[in-house]
Amino acid sequence: MTLAEIRDILECEVLTDGDDLSVRVHQVVASDGMSEILAFARSGELMITGLTNIQSIRTADIAGVSAVVYCRGKRPDKKVIEFAKQKKIPVMVTKMVMFDICGILYNKGLKGVS
To answer: How far apart are CA 78 and CA 84, in angstroms?
Structure first.
């Protein structure tokens, strides 16, 4: 599934303009715990979190995820968005809760880390 398809399915707003949303994603990692993301994420995954501070983008960068989706309508500040742009990590926000996001994406064929 592409990031553009995920954007549409989750009714996301893209916060980082100019990103390539044709990137394909096959797995998802979802957590508000950045240590858990680092422990289980694989390169190229979609990261879902409600944690909007700069650590979320640092974690995404280290883990090599394809994009970050912030859930529950939480929005990172401008500093976080600018850092994501520097790291070329697409950032999206949706009003959906993490549980629903995971269920929707699972039903569309995406899997979690096994």
So the answer is: 10
